[in-house]
Amino acid sequence: MPALEDLLAKSIPELRERFVDRARPVPKGLVEALECDSRQGAHHLAKLIRDRWRKNRAEGQRLHNLLRFEIELWEQGFNFIAGVDEAGMAPLAGPVVAAAVILPRNYKLRRLNDSKQILDEAVRGELAGQIKQDAVVWSVGQAEVEEIDTLNIYHAGLLAMRRAVEGLASQPDFVLVDARRIPHYSVPQRGIIKGDCLSASIAAASIIAKTTRDAIMSELDSIHPGYNFTTHKGYPTPEHCRRLQELGAAPIHRRSFARVRQALGLDPIQDSLFAEQSAPEEAIERADAASPGQ
């Protein structure tokens, strides 16, 4: 690292590019020296560096808080804690996809958050790649459109979650699930309301589930052109609803969803079909048995 005197001989734009834009480590005493510097912009640069430090501390504290459920379980002796979440409950088309992730102990990844809070698709993809590289193990599972229409979307989401967690190469000691509990799964688990915002493991799963499903919908767009699935990913946007009315339903549209049934000229399905208790357990078991490779 250059000596303090050498750094102070550089221009303010050079220093800003190094210590703000590129976020390089700041030598001891540089900020104080900048605050005493007579050059125009030196004081502002010192403020920017201090702001960067404050943001780093705040991000570190946020990531520590995101591990509070995992820390509690690690202290109880659970070593492999899986986070599970799904993506694609609301769309009119395509599968529902779930992911299960076991993170290393005390894992902290800058910008890790609920996938719905990460609006930049490129950032989501970058985080998903890093999580997959760093995770102890990870897996995805999905429930197809036919299963959604047979079981209802609530139970299809649970089926995808179970497939994801059962697909892990190493089984967890404990499972944290966003808002729900996975049926027919013997490992201890806990459902956490808004878990994708509160647990690092669930947040990581939400990012993998979201990016995996988005990639699937982009592939399906080439198979079923005209609906622009690459853009809206099957969600009921005004554009999607307009194209659904113009083109009719594709094979990947969910026939149990009201907007799709309306486009097909079918009667609405009773609301009770979507109650949590409505799908018989044997139907779920049959769907699972029919897809041994999931």
List the defining traits of the structure above.
294 residues; alpha/beta; Nucleotidyltransferase, domain 5; 2 domains
Query: CATH top level of the largest domain?
Result: Alpha Beta
Residue stretches low in confidence (pLDDT < 50, at least 5 long) are 270-280, 290-294
Helix content: 40-55%
Would you count the extended β strands for me? Answer: 5
Number of separate structural domains: 2
CATH superfamily of the largest domain: Ribonuclease H-like superfamily/Ribonuclease H
In terms of DSSP E residues, the strand content is: 5-15%
List the strand order in the largest sheet. Answer: 3-2-1-4-5
Structural class comes to: alpha/beta
Cα(first) to Cα(last) distance is: 52 Å
The CATH architecture of the largest domain is 2-Layer Sandwich
* SS element count, helices: 14
Textual characterization of the structure:
It is built from 14 helices and five strands. The protein has 294 residues and is of the alpha/beta class. It has a five-stranded mixed beta sheet. Mean pLDDT is 90; it is low at 270-280 and 290-294.
Short précis:
The chain has two domains: 62 residues, no CATH class; 156 residues, Nucleotidyltransferase, domain 5. It is 50% helix and 10% strand. The chain has 14 helices and five strands.
